[in-house]
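Just scan my protein:

——
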Amino acid sequence: METSPTELSIVSKLSRKMLAIANNANEGNQKERRGALLHFVDWLHFKPVRVMILSLFFVHICASTYLCTQVNTDFDMENLYLKRSPLTEISRKMQKFVLEESFVVNFALESMPSFEDPAVRERFAMMIHDLENIPLFGMGEKGTTLWTKEYELAISFWGEDDGLWQPEELLKNYKEYGLDRKFITTTYVPLRGSSIAQFLFSG
């Protein structure tokens, strides 16, 4: 069946009218949305509204700052569980008998003490003793990892000999006794050879 030119013209006019109606509807919706947004922006610019928003902002900042000062910073494993959790008591016992709530602190001596001098060795030993026995925090001798203790034990076979503490002899014996090299750094001095320049220990 063939369509006459008159029918095509009518269909074309109807299509244009429908498109025009749809466009008008879209423009109307956009104007309504834009109008509502502009009304909201105008409302925000009212002085009482601005004062209220700023007041709420400052109240929020003050409340947040205050609550931050109330945070319990005494963190331990018990804080990981609910107050009535059965794991709380288990955690408390584990900290007391296993972990003892200790913290490992690493120390570094930038310059090697003159350990060939017995008075220096004695002063250093007293310092370590005081460190190991700090009230509430010290764990005694078992809490310190210090290579000089191992060295003293290793050379005790030879008896007291200050020559074993001479810088060059000290490094030589340190290597021969298989002590851990991670605790020391060495330096080379012409005519004297290598020696320990710095060392680390933890307690």
